[in-house]
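INTERNAL TRANSFER SHEET
From: sequence group
To: structure group
Subject: MFS transporter

Please process the attached sequence and return the structure record in the designated field. Keep the field labels unchanged so the import script can parse them.
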Amino acid sequence: MTQDTTPAESTAPLPVPVGHTALQKRVVRVLITGQILGGIGMGATLSLGALLAAQLSGSSAWSGMAATMSTLGAAIVAIPLARLAQARGRRVSLATGSLIAGTGAILAILSVSVDIFLLLLLALMLLGAGSATNLQARFAATDLATSRFRARDLSVVVWSTTIGAVLGPNLFGPGEALGAALGLPAMTGAFAFSLAATVAAAFVYALGLRPDPLLTALAARTTSAGIRRASGGLAILRSNAAARYAVLVIALSHATMVALMSMAPVHLRDHGATLTIVGLTISLHVAGMYAFSPVFGALSDRLGRLPVILGGQLLLLVALTVAWLSDGSQSTMTVSLIFLGLGWSASVVAGSALVSEAVDIEDRSSLQGFSDLSMNAAGALGGAIAGPILALAGYSALGLCAMALVAVVVVWSIKRMRPAATTSR
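Return from structure group:
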């Protein structure tokens, strides 16, 4: 039977036992610490990947492959990490993902040393595991959360990435100084910060998530409802319309963000921006992605998921319109990227809450893993297509093309709101 539920009617887990309230608070604190460190690991290399790809390949048309490989790597490990979480818990899964990202940082430095473009692509793919880990951490915040505060707890963990991710791009200068002191190639010093941060995050997750939130939630559910076999993510999408909608919102919103953001460093450099200016602009974009996520989480709990998603799409449309009309100036680019980050945040926070609510706890990890796979695969495709569009038609055309993705989400969101409005009468 097809399960076609609205968000308000979606399956909810059993109430969290009172004794787990204190554990949930501690879990959120540990996740916040890990996200700060993971954000440094991600932010320190966010822009350098595109610049190094252009340098090693000899063409700016290949710069989009940096975001493509990073998001592809995140997509590849999303389901394995989700399965590892289901079997061994969030603690093992998150620590493993962080260590894989640290390995990518080492290979990135090596790739520039030996001037091998393919090795850089492999490094960026492994670094993408850090993004997958950060994404899974937001879902870890919902394992023991009550429905009343689920979006809030998720959004606070997303917000914590702001600290590291905004700090990361501004480590380019210190990274170059550190790299020179260590004898590293130019533009690779920031990867040393990335390596230290991801290893530290692995230790935080391994030591701090005891007892494990997901295993604790599964044990509580099993005691009350009995054991039942979890479905695969794709099987869930076939039978659950709410899950299909939530996954699509996240995937298309992420593809829109990656397509514009991945080309921004190259576009800025082509218009004479310094490496410091590029880092500052990207850090403001990342601030838009994460800094206001608690606001969107609170609004999502208070107003509902659909209104916040529609608001996020409106913010994305503003960003794309500014990019379309952009004259290439730093100020115009900064405005566009800030709105791009805000739109991504609203859409992903509300969409992620829907993903967590669409199924019971036994199936939640499978759906979350498939959602992250879809999200990163869409981002990889967006980054891959963005490079040729930039080279052939310019940044303005890229903004115009991305509007089609926003239109799909808006139309589906409006359709999902109509049955609810009819029912309320």
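Handover comment: Residues 159 and 289 are 8 Å apart (CA to CA). The chain has 17 helices and no strands.
Transfer complete.
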